[in-house]
Design a protein that fits this description.
Radius of gyration: 40 Å
CATH topology of one domain: Heat Shock Protein 90
Order of helices and strands: HHEEHEEEHEEEEEEHHHEHEEHEEHEEH
CATH superfamily of one domain: Histidine kinase-like ATPase, C-terminal domain
Largest sheet: 6 strands, antiparallel
CATH class of one domain: Alpha Beta
Structural class: alpha+beta
CATH architecture of one domain: 2-Layer Sandwich
Shape: flat
Helix content: 40-55%
Distance between the termini: 78 Å
Low-confidence stretches: 343-361, 415-420, 528-533
Strand content: 15-25%
Strand order of the largest sheet: 7-6-11-10-9-8
Oligomer: single chain
């Protein structure tokens, strides 16, 4: 009986845990769904506002057209009508008409149902010298329209008439009618005037009401609840609308409407259910294993009790069991010894892996100075063959400097291997970048890469190590050149910004960064496997070096190409003292 209560208690605990996981997962999924729905709603609103703005600007541009200033003769009216008809056909406007001060239609692109628009809200606004707008339904055809009226001014600046453009809302809807989510726009009277679900057109919302009411009235299934910050609607308004939906609203004062969206929450419920089911399955599996282990232990305990009750009669059997137990202990000791040996081998393998990574880093660190020495040696030999000893001596001096720099690099790497740090202090950042540009100048010239580097007039002092900072910028310049290797135009820009924090930016015009999250991970590279161009350690090493100076480095995508930003600390005399 006790086991039954334990099982029931365990099942209740699993149920409560699954319910908690479902609730948490559902809220998380609703948050993600809400972000997507908000973006979809803003996109639909922007589309509608942009398309309606076309007709608004059309009314303003055509209001003072020269052909509309003289409408006294039939020929002038016919010419004006032809122009309005041509513009209306090209812009898909339903109609365009020119009205006098009394609202009388002087000329129109299409025949009108009424000759006087004096009571039209858009026209009344235009008479006040401002752009007017209104929406409504045509009485005969039943088409939904949106009207804009722009005032026309005479030479004295007085309103002498207005140009009205009428747009068909249904044509505007065609551009986003295929949207997955149900989007609708409610006007100031609480009527659904535009929607990508025709079932919702002309539904109404009374003041203070949450849901909607059909045009013919009557009750419909509707309930509103809140899950955290999210508003959920439960409804049964047709097969093209979700039964449970996330509801979002967006005010659009420019067109005097409110945009709303209904997003089906069924995917969020399914995801939360899957998470809860997974947790429940894991807990039940663990519980089953625990139950089997407990049952086995209980069975062994009962058998041991029976064995102890018969110890007197089965002395020989007990001796044999003790012998078998000793043999099992010996086997377990041997297994423990083998396990320790395997652990030692695993530790040694880890050491070898770390050594291999350090060897790759040393190769990467020494590659650039070696290439520079080779270039200077070739140049020196060429100058000697031409009898230009001064230039040859200059190249030999540079080779000596590069050798000294390699010694400093090896010293720094040795110090790094011993958990030592290169002494940091006052570093001229302008000189550091000049050196990096000089080291990469030969390669950039050979590959046709243009370097845009305008150093400041004076030095800029940063806190760091000179050799390691040069290596950082050499890596960034080489990576930029590699990124542009497959294109004709190649340009690298380097700039220093001395603001609250010292910042250096290195930009290129290449294809950009494919994955910014893995950018500074060791051995991550977009180059082909086995390529001689690099092993994916440059940015990782640069990241560690900048971090050791108390700075930061990050890579982002600019409008064209990639941009790496290196942030460093200023050198301050008072801090050193």
């Amino acid at each position: 009986m006790q086991r039954v209560w334990v099982i029931l208690g365990f099942l209740c605990a699993v149920g409560l845990l699954s319910a908690g996981v479902w609730s948490y997962g559902y809220r998380q999924a609703l948050s993600q769904l809400g972000e997507k729905a908000e973006a979809d709603l803003e996109l639909a609103a922007d589309r509608l506002s942009t398309q309606m703005q076309v007709y608004q600007e059309l009314a303003v541009l055509m209001a003072n057209h020269p052909t509309l200033q003289e409408l006294e003769t039939p020929v002038q009216k016919q010419t004006a009508r032809a122009i309005l008809l041509d513009v209306a056909d090209k812009t898909a406007a339903v109609n365009m008409m020119y009205l006098d001060q009394n609202g009388q239609v002087l000329v129109s692109a299409q025949p009108v149902e009424q000759d006087n628009m004096a009571e039209h809200l858009a026209f009344q606004r235009a008479l006040q010298g401002a752009l007017g707008s209104a929406h409504g339904v045509l009485p005969i055809s039943g088409d939904r329209i949106y009207s804009y009226a722009a005032p026309a001014f005479d030479a004295s600046g007085q309103v002498e008439g207005a140009l009205m453009v009428i747009a068909d809302v249904q044509d505007v809807e065609q551009t986003w009618r295929g949207s997955t989510e149900a989007v609708f726009f409610i006007d100031g009277d609480g009527v659904v005037f535009i929607s990508n679900r025709s079932d919702l057109l002309f539904w109404r919302r009374a003041e203070g009401q949450q849901g909607l009411t059909p045009p013919e009235g009557g009750e419909v299934d509707f309930a509103a609840t809140r899950v955290g910050p999210h508003e959920l609607w439960s409804l049964n308004w047709g097969r093209y609308l979700p039964s449970r939906a996330l509801h979002l609203m967006l005010e659009l004062p420019v067109i005097d409407m409110t945009a709303e969206v209904l997003v089906d929450v069924a995917p969020a419920r399914r995801l939360a259910g899957l998470q809860a089911a997974t947790v429940a399955a894991i807990c039940l599996a663990f519980g089953a294993l625990l139950f089997l282990a407990t049952e086995r232990r209980r069975t062994l305990a009962e058998a041991n009790a029976v064995l102890e009750s018969r110890v007197a009669q089965r002395t020989r059997a007990l001796t044999a069991a003790n012998t078998a137990l000793r043999r099992e202990v010996h086997e377990r000791q041997e297994a423990e010894t083998a396990l320790k040996h395997a652990q030692e081998e695993l530790i040694q393998a880890g050491k070898l892996s770390a050594l291999g990574q350090m060897s790759a880093g040393i190769s990467h660190e020494l590659n650039q100075p070696l290439m520079a020495i080779r270039q200077f040696a070739d140049n020196g030999a060429a100058f000697l063959s031409r009898g230009r000893e001064e230039k040859a001596s200059e190249n030999l001096t540079r080779i000596s400097d590069m050798a000294a720099r390699m010694a400093r690099i090896i010293k720094n790497l040795r110090a790094f291997a011993r958990n030592e740090n290169e002494p940091m202090g006052k570093v001229d950042l302008v000189q550091v970048i000049d050196t990096a540009v000089e080291l990469t100048e030969a390669r950039l010239r050979a590959e046709g890469v243009t370097m845009d580097w305008q150093p400041p007039d004076g030095p800029v002092y940063a806190w760091g190590g000179e050799v390691r900072l040069v290596q950082v910028f050499v890596n960034l310049i080489n990576n930029a050149a590699d990124a542009m290797s497959q294109q004709d135009e190649r340009l690298i820009r380097i700039a220093i910004e001395a603001a609250d924090r010292l910042t250096v930016t290195v930009r290129d015009i290449g294809p950009g960064i494919e994955n910014t999250e893995k950018l500074f991970e060791p051995f991550y590279s977009t180059k082909a496997v086995g390529s001689s161009e690099g092993m994916g350690l440059g940015l990782s090493i640069s990241y560690g070096l900048v971090q050791s100076f108390g700075g930061n480095i990050r890579g982002t995508n600019a409008q064209t190409g990639a941009m790496f930003t290196v942030e460093l600390e200023y050198y301050r005399e008072d801090e050193v003292a």
